[in-house]
């Protein structure tokens, strides 16, 4: 049984993992629309986000149907979306 | 949706009929607790001693009065020391004006702690007997105010428990009822959504102004370039930006228009979705909403917390089934089935409304069983004032002093 990831709004770019996955694992995307499988590109802990479609550098990333940040690099479908490739529009750490 | 409650002289309806013992200073906490232990009356521990800050003292007195005239309270015993800065007689007078039975004992004049406790027990027992014969009256969900809160969150709070509470909030508001969302520090980053939801331009502007004020205050104590950031624990849990965290947090208040923005502890005039200006400390935030008349609290948690209130049921909603299993003493309901894919957000939202109605009809929440009675009010500390003053000097703007 693959790990599921919840898509909160149909227009979102990311889904949230309900359990940990390893690179190459199939992830079941649920919550909105037709359930489908995506292959995880990275190891990711539970609660983290994966891209459900390719995201381009500088593209605004949607979760909850709202902008949560901007991509700082191209992200492939199934890729881990986190602080290494997504910056808040509101607040940016100096480091 | 109907329930049998207790109609108060001001027209509000209570879902509980507590006798409340109010200690007006920390020095008499033990006396109040002793009376409570011997009679079953509700009480709380006052967290502070005297304060010589006028704003803080006013907040303290208003907190006591708000508890004393709360719809869930039928009668009050005020226990004072006698020399505290918070005025016991002012508190007594305001509660008396509400038409409730109220009495006051001053420890310095009543013979000391043990004697005061004995006198208090006698008073509370008399009040309890009077309240026991009070006839009930029919109340409706549209008369209830439900406070929304989160504490000890985890990565799933914004995914299951908060949106499920949001579904419940929509059902409650559509039925004519009221929900209160608070903690403005947790709204920094979600301004655009909140702005769209404001019912009038006044509500929108007021909310934006207050959120900005918190952002400026936060910028004085963080190293981030805009003064807002999320904790390492949040990042480890999978939250990437402040926007993401705040969006997950405000999800609790559903999707209906925001009708009013109120001060800490202020009673709302409007129904629907209310925003209260409270600090981002859950106990203090819950206390503020109860002072404002909230009948009960829906409290989402990921890691679990026993948090409760002296006079209003605080119902804990866990974001996952593991915490629900591991903390059965404290968690009332789990939204974890959403994670496991066996229930929809809407289904859990409906279960939450059912829990609200059962609680209104008298079913006790977990925190009530264990008499968990947290109480905290904002502390306008000297330190904070100094920080603000230093910042003003740095900006060469002392206009606030003129």
TrEMBL record, chain A:
- CDD domains reported for this sequence: SAF_AH_GD
Domain SAF span(s) in chain numbering: 12-87
- Which Pfam families does the protein's record reference? SAF
**Keywords associated with the record:** Lyase
Q: Identify the Gene3D superfamilies for this entry.
A: 2.30.130.110
Which InterPro entries would you find in this protein's record?
A: SAF, SAF_UxaA/GarD, UxaA_altronate/galactarate_dh
Q: Tell me the domain of life.
A: Bacteria
Entry EC number(s): 4.2.1.7
Q: What class of enzyme is it?
A: lyase
Q: Which GO terms describe its molecular function?
A: altronate dehydratase activity
What name has this protein been given in UniProt? Altronate dehydratase small subunit
Native organism is: Aminobacter niigataensis
UniProtKB/TrEMBL annotation, chain B:
What's this protein's family per the entry? Belongs to the UxaA family.
Kindly give the InterPro entries that the UniProt entry links to this protein. GD_AH_C, GD_AH_second, UxaA_altronate/galactarate_dh
| Protein name as annotated | Altronate dehydratase large subunit
Q: Name one Pfam family in it.
A: GD_AH_second
Q: Name one GO molecular function term.
A: altronate dehydratase activity
Q: What is its EC number?
A: 4.2.1.7
Q: Please name the source species.
A: Aminobacter niigataensis
Keyword vocabulary terms for this entry: Lyase
Keyword Lyase present in the record's keywords: the answer is yes
Locate the D-galactarate/Altronate dehydratase second domain: which residues? 5-131
Whether Cell cycle counts among this entry's keywords is no
Q: Which stretches make up the D-galactarate/Altronate dehydratase C-terminal domain?
A: 141-380
């Amino acid at each position: 049984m693959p790990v599921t990831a919840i898509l909160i709004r149909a227009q979102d770019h990311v889904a949230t993992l309900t359990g940990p996955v390893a690179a190459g694992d199939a992830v079941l995307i649920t919550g909105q629309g037709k359930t489908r499988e995506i292959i995880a590109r990275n190891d990711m802990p539970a609660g983290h986000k994966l891209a459900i479609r390719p995201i381009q550098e500088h593209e605004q990333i949607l979760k909850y149907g709202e902008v949560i940040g901007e991509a700082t690099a191209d992200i492939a479908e199934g890729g881990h979306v986190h602080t290494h490739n997504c910056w808040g529009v509101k607040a940016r750490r100096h480091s | 949706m109907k329930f049998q409650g207790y109609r108060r002289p001001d027209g509000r309806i209570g879902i509980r009929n507590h006798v409340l013992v109010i200690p007006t200073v920390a020095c008499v906490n033990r006396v109040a607790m002793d009376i409570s232990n011997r009679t079953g009356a509700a009480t709380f521990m006052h967290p502070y001693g005297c304060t010589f800050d006028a704003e803080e003292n006013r907040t303290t007195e208003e907190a006591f009065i708000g508890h004393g005239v709360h719809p869930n309270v039928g009668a009050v015993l005020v226990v004072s020391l006698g020399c505290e800065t918070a005025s016991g007689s002012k508190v007594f007078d305001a509660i008396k004006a509400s038409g409730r039975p109220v009495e006051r004992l001053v420890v310095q004049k009543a013979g000391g702690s043990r004697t005061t406790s004995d006198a208090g027990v006698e008073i509370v027992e008399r009040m309890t007997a009077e309240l026991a014969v009070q006839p009930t009256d029919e109340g409706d969900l549209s008369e209830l105010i439900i406070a929304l809160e989160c504490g000890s969150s985890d990565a799933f709070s914004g995914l299951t428990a908060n949106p499920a509470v949001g579904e419940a909030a929509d059902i409650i508001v559509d039925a004519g009822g009221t929900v209160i969302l608070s903690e403005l520090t947790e709204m920094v980053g979600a301004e655009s959504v909140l702005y769209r939801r404001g019912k009038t331009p006044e509500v929108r502007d007021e909310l934006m102004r207050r959120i900005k004020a918190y952002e400026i205050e936060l910028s004085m104590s963080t190293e981030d370039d805009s003064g807002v950031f999320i904790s390492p624990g949040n990042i480890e849990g999978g939250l990437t930006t402040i926007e993401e965290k705040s969006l997950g947090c405000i999800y609790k208040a559903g999707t209906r228009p925001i009708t009013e923005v109120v001060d800490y502890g202020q009673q709302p005039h409007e129904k629907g979705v209310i925003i209260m200006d409270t600090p981002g400390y859950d106990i203090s935030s819950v206390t503020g909403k109860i002072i404002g008349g909230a009948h009960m609290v829906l409290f989402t948690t990921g890691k679990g917390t026993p948090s409760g209130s002296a006079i209003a049921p605080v119902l804990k909603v866990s974001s996952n089934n593991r915490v629900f299993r591991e903390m059965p003493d404290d968690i009332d309901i789990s939204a974890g089935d959403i994670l496991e894919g066996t229930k929809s957000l809407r289904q859990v939202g409906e279960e939450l409304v059912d829990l609200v109605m059962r609680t209104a009809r008298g079913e006790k929440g977990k925190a009530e069983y264990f008499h968990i009675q947290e109480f905290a009010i904002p502390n306008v500390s000297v330190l904070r004032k100094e920080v603000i003053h230093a910042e003003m000097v740095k900006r060469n703007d002392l206009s606030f002093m003129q």
